[in-house]
Amino acid sequence: MLVHIGKLINKKMVGKYAIPAFNTQDLETTQGIIRAAVAQKSPVIIQTSVGALEYAGVEELAGLIKTQVREVNVPIALHQDHCHDFSLIKKLINLGYSSVMIDASHLPYKDNVKLTREVVSYAHKRGVWVQAELGRILGNEDWQNVKSGEDLMTDPDEAVKFVAETRIDTLAVAVGSMHGIPVDPRIKKVLSTLKEHIDLQRLKAIRKKIQIPLVVHGASGVPDAQIRAAIKIGVSIFNIDTDLRVAFNKALRKNLKQHLEIYDPRKLLAPATLALQKKAEEKIKLLKSNGKGR
Ligand code: G3H
Ligand code: ZN
Question: 258 C-alpha vs ligand 1 centroid, how far in Å?
Fold first, then answer.
């Protein structure tokens, strides 16, 4: 069933388990995620990016997710990922999103605060949570392409100020994880200098000072041990996209190669959806949210 994100995130989970926020842009991905949530009795967040909404259509994609979620008995929340378009945010709130991310992290601090505050004021009047980002998460995500390293990570003291000034509900932290697969040599170089994918010391310092739920983006490709350590430190939400896409693509390519006689798209796509589901189940177990959606 579709629930408010506030039903999935609570203080008791901090340090024990976290909720996956999976991205979707189509029928198959949505089905795979929901089937994984049902199989593992896990609460999940389903999120859309601006690019996904452009690809599938805003009302079409929101409608597809809501219709499928209605049929199942695990709690699922709908969230808008990285968005810098206030009018789109308003539209999504009208369509029943219980959480939206205003990503003004590319702007100077004071402009990030200003725009985020405006969105918070609008969203809170309608009972909707707001996520914002401070610092800049590495890699490619829709309109963002961040290539630099340490200097763009979230500063713990600035984060305290940012949360107080904006009154956001969840904070996306830049702690070293990155969006997508590192193909750019500059990003590869930055990554090769890091001892850990996630700067756990920085994460600890942020956690100590910040009370609201923390979100780690770019969780694909982060070693399991570091995800577990980040959960212990107190991360509540992990955004996962690329790992599901890779699982889907791998299975699809294999099927296409092995079965030249198949021309029914449904038969080509079904094993890919299943592979994505299995990957989502792995992630749910890693975050220990399995069984928490009864
Ligand atoms: O906002 C979405 C994500 O942070 C997903 O990142 O594709 O690296 O898993 P990922
Ligand atoms: Zn992200």
Answer: 30
36 Cα to the center of ligand 2, angstroms: 21
CB 190, CB 140: distance < 8 Å: no
Residue 50 token pair: 């601006």
Distance between CA atoms of 72 and 86, rounded to whole angstroms?
Answer: 31
Which residues 6+ apart lie within 8 Å of 27 measured at CB?
64
Hey, which residues are catalytic here? 81
In this predicted model, what pLDDT tens digit does every residue of 259-286 receive, in sequence order? 999 999 999 999 999 999 999 999 999 9
Which atom of ligand 1 approaches the CA of 244 most closely?
9
Is residue 99 in contact with ligand 1, taking CB distance under 6 Å?
no
Contact 205, 156 (CB under 8 A): yes
* Nearest residue to 122 via CA among 130, 131, 132: 130
Beta bridge partners of residue 239, listed in sequence order: 21
Does the global pTM surpass 0.90? yes
What residue owns the CA closest to ligand 1's atom 2? Answer: 239
| Maximum Cα–Cα distance across the chain | 60
Q: Which protein residue has the closest C-alpha to ligand 1 atom 6?
A: 218
Phi, psi torsion values for 83, nearest 5 degrees: -140, 135
Quick check: 283 and 220 in contact, CB under 8 A?
A: no
pLDDT of residue 137: 77
Element (H, E) at 92: helix 86-94
pLDDT higher than threshold 90 for residue 146: no
Concatenate the DSSP letters of all residues of 252-278 into one string. HHHHHHH-TT---HHHHHHHHHHHHHH
Q: Are strands 144-146 and 138-141 parallel, antiparallel or unpaired?
A: antiparallel
Q: 178 CA to middle of ligand 1, Å?
A: 7
